[in-house]
């Protein structure tokens, strides 16, 4: 008879910034600990804001030393080195990471995001970790045309026992582009903490206009400039709105110029840890990305019961089908029309928001996410034990 007791898991990421993946790692660590699993978290290239909540949970934490050349794992287009030794040097002391794994002795190591999941399989095998899992949490456009990056990924995947995608969209992309055996792939959607569904005091965003909020870093693929174009069209048709932008990034200066040129009311709120209060203050949430695996910002807006208008891409369509408005990417006029419709039809907006909240509660809770991870880990450790479908 096989035991089914999962005792110790290590979660690995490049850094612990404010990104959606990092927040999911914190939620998964919390949930595993709640189920009696000892959890360690390795942050290979330095710490970040999400280091503190993990320390507050008394979770074992390894924070690797980094170098100037190390690239933030949160960048949407990471700079890939041209050789394996350069990849290894991104972890200032790879033997130290292996030593930490040996001391912690996890049964399962689960690595998230490219830089972590290409380094970890070799480290885990050297440390004799029984099971190695790799995450896929976005479309892999950033790897296109980078032959060495793809070869390195394939080599790492060959040493990996399971690949977990966070949506059907990401799973389809992974099967197609990485030619991954479907049997090696599982799908576990992101989770939302219980407090995401609580009523919360709205942030103070003084305005006599409807507030359209967007939660996104200022990278080109997030399409924030198209939201400002849509706001300009609404202004021109006497439907002015206040745009509240949560995030930051390399396009900020250009977006500020765009807002000034069109004399728009745009609030640049920066990176925030109080996103629920921003959502509570919003009348509408708009997300304009060209490519997402599964948008945490959309899930949070659904939990808040907000009417949502999003670009019609897989990472938005999957959670929002039937409970949000979907418009073509890069089409500012369509986006403006969607926002105007939600403003003009408050009953429709309310119905969509209510439906989105119910779907988030049913499909994207932290409990479901954590329990499905535990079932997947145990199935890999003890394959003779039947467990729910992945």
Which keywords apply here?
Rossmann fold, 2 domains, alpha/beta, elongated, 390 residues, 6-stranded parallel sheet, single chain, 7-stranded parallel sheet
Task: Give structural notes.
The chain has 15 helices and 13 strands. It is elongated, with a radius of gyration of 21 Å. α5 packs across α6 (147-158). The longest helix is centred in the C-terminal third of the chain and has 18 residues, at 346-363. With 390 residues, it is of the alpha/beta class. Helices cover 43% and strands 15% of the residues. β8 (211-215), α8 (224-236) and β9 (242-246) form a beta-alpha-beta unit. The chain folds into 2 domains: 8-191 and 365-381, Glycogen Phosphorylase B (Rossmann fold, 3-Layer(aba) Sandwich), CATH 3.40.50.2000; 195-363, 3-Layer(aba) Sandwich (Rossmann fold), CATH 3.40.50.2000. The chain has helices at residues 20-34, 51-56, 84-90, 94-104, 114-126, 147-158, 168-177, 224-236, 252-261, 275-281, 296-303, 314-320, 332-344, 346-363, 366-381, and strands at 8-13, 38-43, 60-63, 108-111, 131-136, 162-165, 185-187, 211-215, 242-246, 265-270, 284-287, 308-311, 325-327. Strands 3-2-1-4-5-6-7 form a 7-stranded parallel sheet, sandwiched between helices. A 6-stranded parallel sheet has the order 10-9-8-11-12-13, with helices on both faces.
Distance between the termini: 22 Å
- The percent of residues in helical segments reads 40-55%
- Quaternary state reads single chain
Strand order of the largest sheet: 3-2-1-4-5-6-7
Q: Please name the CATH topology of the largest domain.
A: Rossmann fold
CATH architecture of the largest domain: 3-Layer(aba) Sandwich
Unreliable stretches covering 5 or more consecutive residues: 68-84
Shape: elongated
Tell me the β content.
Answer: 15-25%
Rg over C-alpha atoms, rounded to the nearest angstrom: 21 Å
Overall number of domains = 2
